[in-house]
Write a sequence for this structure.
């Protein structure tokens, strides 16, 4: 058993990084807009599709393979720049201040639309593009060969947590967001352009979703149905951490990742149950999540 | 006027299935989903949105499959027992779930249903995993009918149940217990001050809604002949809310109108377009933005004008 | 107003179903319902099947169709799940022009459709229904399988493995989490236990079908240090697994068996020495296939049209359509040239013996098929960008099948090492 402890922990970290990228955008959007975006999973898979398509193009033209790393990032920016403002202006804005039922249903409608849109644009076959993964090579740790790309993802996840915290606490935009989160009416009355903040925050959420999808593609395939699976995993993580809590999402990702990996190592038949069982267990004790609270609107 | 309209609709459905036996299956499924959507609609009256009710739909169908395996082979008995199974699960889950409101209620329902889904999908030895379980054709009053005859019996039974259960739910919603639901939505605290136990009101509603979803689930199980974990996936729960809202939660017929509308349209559209979900998504958004009373609201409004 | 809408709905509904065709009269077209995965991860396996059907039906129609009647297919995507597949099956079966269903790819859908086929009395040919549970009760009248089933398929891998690597001690299994994966594991383990009782299974993983990511599973397999990794993953799952496992050294640290490996040889770089097969005899490059003019022609036309050579699901589909055509010819011969009813077609399929593109398929009294099994290892080939299968053994269909009515797992447990010695050795089929 002791020989498997290091791989077990490493796998948990690698798994948690992927899970974190799936969830962080959802929780960020909720913290600013108070909207649970059910279409978040679709934005994740769109990011994946765009990234894989661009990387496949790079490979087919035999351009410098390291361009594919740029492509991963660029794809997410591209998706966010186009879909972020579009969705926020046309649909999400309409739901501000409306009941949760309306918000969930409107974004569920958007989810259905985006799922079909992906089929129409990217086709229904699986895509796979692994050149970034192969470029980075492997390392042998604890007797098991890992992809350096997996380790890179863990570092990226840490970077995103720190980056978001810095953005929110130490930049002008971050302070504006905090002001809006804390008291929307007050922020408006002192002349903050809340509409612009909402567009920016939502687009940032779309960017994080698409980035998650893009970063996942080099180590896993994409196919129709990815959006629905990602959505419910993102729900679980956001709920465990406390809706709207970025550090909460990071801790929740570690919990869910560890639970899943532990299941695969010890009771493989329960691997798919682990994330939701963890979610249920946490929510029964703390319905507002580990870091959430009923009243405080923190970010 | 409204009664005549409803009666005409029921007679039309019966005639439709008689004239087009192939549609019978679609209509049976539509009524089954209508029951489940009605269950969701009951909770929506209290402002509670559940993205987990497909669990009760599936639980009841699994119940029927397990009971049939255990040797119970009578349609009536299987229906009653499997609905009781889902009602019981509903009462147990509801006893803690109804303490929560808004987004937390929605998320907890989702969590419970996804645990259920994952267990059904992963416990291959018990539930058949993602292959699911067969729901064999049971006897009706001791007689085992051939498949087409049984499916007709199932359809006309569903139609009858739709009327009877629909009337019962209508009476429930019109009773003090039912009115208390809307009061929870509008002003829960005042309700508490009036000495009405909100927890009990909601638990009763939750159990009824689980039983309704269960009734739909076992009908669907018999109609399809199989139950699979996908019955309980979160998108299935989402579709139930969608049907309820599309039809309109203003009255009992809304859920059935929504289900029939969607299923019939789906059968017509499936040969024409691949982008069915996109169509449904757009319809949903348009209905919510511009017709908050749902399709049923159209009838209601016309009624108000004509009277 | 609503009533008028209702009436038109009735009219539409009537129009949809009222296309009466008098029995025994030649219809203008013969409809086939063909069930396969055309979307999602499983489409990587399902589309080659559909492609082959397109090509094969064109060839059949170019030669005058079946009994002079052109054949047209309606494809049903199995990715919509059992509920939708069943609804589509019922809808297609309700149209009289659809006389035969070619269904299905996924064993889950086969098991779900089989009772309905019997109830509706529609001849249903499982083009890829390999699960041995399908025809277990021996009572099927309308469900046929002109393929081998999971028993001979996975017993063949155990025998081949023990011939090639007699000192194997530890085995790990990673199969998809549904009937096909669990059945294969049960049979493979039972065969190993019977033929070499000291083999130990050190890990058994059943990831959900259509999982895109196997990184944790690969680590888990690596920590178990097995001599052999066995897998019957398929479709995009298999492609994903191979792509993810190759750089992480799984193929060098263990002898890997990919039961459906042939399907991805042209798509994914695969190292030499991996034990692969075709779940039957359907390899387009087998010695028998190369001698068959029709097969060579088919493979060339397939490559021309779809940009890659047929994989074994393509051959399975093509062989199934040949089987359906043969049944029509036999039925019409028997009833004096009249157009056969559904019952007569089913009757003609029973106990038939049909020459296919890659061998023969014999239908037993229990409707189960006898088909040879080819197993080999991957090997780089001169002049091709992808590896071929070498060191092959071709096991006779009936030698690895239990008798009708026999409990298959119990039969596997009775196998003796002496029995395995009587079978063809790796490299004997060339």
């Amino acid at each position: 058993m002791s020989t498997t402890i290091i791989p077990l922990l490493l796998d948990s970290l690698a798994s948690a990084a992927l899970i974190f990228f799936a969830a962080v955008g959802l929780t960020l959007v909720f913290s600013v807009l108070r909207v649970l975006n059910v279409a978040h999973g679709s934005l994740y898979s769109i990011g994946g599709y765009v990234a894989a398509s661009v990387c496949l193009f790079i490979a087919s033209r035999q351009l410098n393979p390291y361009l594919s790393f740029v492509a991963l990032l660029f794809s997410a920016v591209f998706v966010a720049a186009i879909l972020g403002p579009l969705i926020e202006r046309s649909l999400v804005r309409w739901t501000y201040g409306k009941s949760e039922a309306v918000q969930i249903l409107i974004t569920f409608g958007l989810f259905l639309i985006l799922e079909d849109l992906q089929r129409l644009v990217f086709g229904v076959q699986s895509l796979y593009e692994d050149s970034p993964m192969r470029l980075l090579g492997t390392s042998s740790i604890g007797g098991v060969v890992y992809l350096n790309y997996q380790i890179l993802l863990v570092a990226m996840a840490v970077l995103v947590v720190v980056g978001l915290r810095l953005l929110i606490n130490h930049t002008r935009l971050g302070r504006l967001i905090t002001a809006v989160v804390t008291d929307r009416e007050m922020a408006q009355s002192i002349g903050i352009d809340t509409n612009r903040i909402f567009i920016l925050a939502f687009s940032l959420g779309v960017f994080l979703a698409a980035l998650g999808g893009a970063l996942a593609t080099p180590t896993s395939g994409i196919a129709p149905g990815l959006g629905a699976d990602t959505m419910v995993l993102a729900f679980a993580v956001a709920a465990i951490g406390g809706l709207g809590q970025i550090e909460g999402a990071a801790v929740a990702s570690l919990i869910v990742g560890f639970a899943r990996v532990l299941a695969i190592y010890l009771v493989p038949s329960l691997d798919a149950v682990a994330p939701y069982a963890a979610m249920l267990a946490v929510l029964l004790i703390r319905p507002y999540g580990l870091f959430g609270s009923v009243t405080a609107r923190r970010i | 006027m409204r009664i005549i309209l409803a009666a005409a609709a029921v007679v039309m459905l019966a005639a439709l299935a008689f004239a087009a036996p192939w549609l019978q299956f679609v209509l049976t499924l539509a009524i089954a989903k209508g029951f489940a959507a009605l269950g969701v609609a009951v909770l929506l009256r209290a402002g509670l949105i559940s993205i987990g009710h497909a669990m009760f739909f599936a639980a009841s169908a699994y119940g029927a499959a397990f009971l049939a395996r255990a040797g119970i082979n009578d349609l009536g008995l299987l229906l009653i027992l499997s609905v009781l199974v889902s009602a019981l699960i509903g009462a147990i889950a509801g006893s803690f779930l109804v303490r929560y409101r808004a987004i937390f209620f929605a998320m907890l329902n989702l969590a419970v249903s996804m645990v259920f889904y994952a267990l059904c999908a992963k416990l291959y030895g018990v539930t058949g995993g993602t292959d699911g379980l067969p729901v064999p054709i049971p006897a009706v009053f001791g007689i085992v009918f051939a498949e087409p005859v049984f499916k007709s019996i199932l359809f006309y039974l569903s139609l009858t149940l739709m009327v009877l259960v629909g009337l019962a739910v209508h009476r429930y919603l019109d009773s003090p217990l039912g009115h208390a639901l809307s009061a929870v939505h509008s002003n829960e605290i005042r309700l508490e001050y009036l000495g009405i136990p909100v927890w009990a009101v909601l638990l009763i509603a939750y159990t009824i809604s689980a039983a309704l979803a269960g009734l739909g689930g076992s009908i669907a199980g018999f109609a399809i002949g199989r139950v699979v974990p996908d019955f309980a996936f979160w998108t299935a729960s989402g579709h139930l809310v969608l049907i309820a809202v599309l039809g309109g939660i203003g009255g009992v017929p809304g859920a059935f109108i929504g289900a029939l509308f969607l299923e019939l349209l789906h059968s017509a559209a499936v040969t024409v377009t691949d982008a069915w979900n996109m169509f449904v998504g757009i319809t949903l958004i348009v209905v919510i933005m511009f017709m908050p009373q749902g399709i049923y609201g159209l009838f209601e409004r016309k009624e108000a004008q004509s009277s | 107003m609503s009533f008028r809408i209702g009436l038109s709905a009735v009219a539409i509904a009537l129009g949809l179903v009222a296309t009466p065709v008098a029995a025994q009269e030649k219809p203008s077209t013969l409809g086939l319902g063909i069930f396969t995965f055309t979307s999602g991860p499983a489409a990587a396996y399902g589309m080659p099947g559909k492609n082959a059907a397109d090509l094969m039906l064109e060839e059949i129609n170019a030669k005058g169709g079946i009994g002079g009647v052109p054949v047209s297919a309606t494809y049903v995507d199995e990715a919509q799940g059992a509920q939708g597949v069943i609804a589509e099956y019922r809808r297609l079966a309700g149209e009289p022009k659809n006389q035969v269903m070619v269904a299905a790819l996924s064993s889950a859908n086969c098991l779900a459709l089989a009772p309905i086929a019997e109830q509706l009395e529609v001849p249903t040919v499982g083009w890829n229904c390999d699960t041995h549970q399908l025809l277990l009760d021996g009572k099927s009248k309308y469900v046929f399988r002109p393929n081998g089933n999971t028993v001979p398929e996975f017993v063949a891998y155990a025998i081949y493995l023990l011939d090639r690597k007699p000192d194997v001690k530890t085995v790990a299994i990673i199969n998809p989490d549904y009937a096909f994966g669990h059945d294969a594991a049960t049979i493979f383990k039972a065969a190993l236990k019977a033929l070499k009782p000291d083999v130990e299974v050190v890990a058994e993983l059943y990831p959900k079908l259509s999982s895109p990511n196997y990184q944790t599973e690969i680590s888990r397999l690596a920590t178990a240090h097995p001599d052999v990794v066995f897998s019957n993953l398929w479709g995009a799952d298999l492609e994903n697994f191979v792509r993810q496992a190759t750089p992480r050294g799984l193929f060098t640290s263990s002898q890997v068996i990919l039961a459906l490996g042939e399907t991805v040889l042209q798509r994914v770089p695969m190292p030499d020495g991996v034990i692969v097969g075709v779940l039957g005899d359907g390899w387009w490059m087998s010695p028998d296939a190369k001698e068959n003019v029709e097969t060579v022609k088919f493979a060339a036309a397939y490559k021309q049209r779809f940009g890659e050579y047929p994989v074994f699901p393509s051959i399975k589909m093509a062989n199934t359509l040949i089987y359906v055509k043969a049944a029509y010819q036999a039925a019409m011969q028997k009833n004096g040239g009249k157009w056969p009813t559904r019952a007569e077609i089913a009757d003609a399929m029973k106990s038939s013996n049909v020459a296919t593109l890659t061998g023969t398929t014999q239908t037993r009294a229990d409707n189960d098929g006898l088909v040879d099994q080819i197993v080999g290892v991957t090997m780089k080939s001169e002049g091709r960008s992808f590896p071929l299968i070498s060191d092959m053994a071709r096991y006779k269909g009936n030698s690895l099948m239990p008798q009708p009515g026999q409990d298959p797992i119990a039969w596997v447990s009775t196998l003796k090492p002496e029995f395995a010695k009587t079978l063809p050795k790796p490299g004997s089929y060339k």
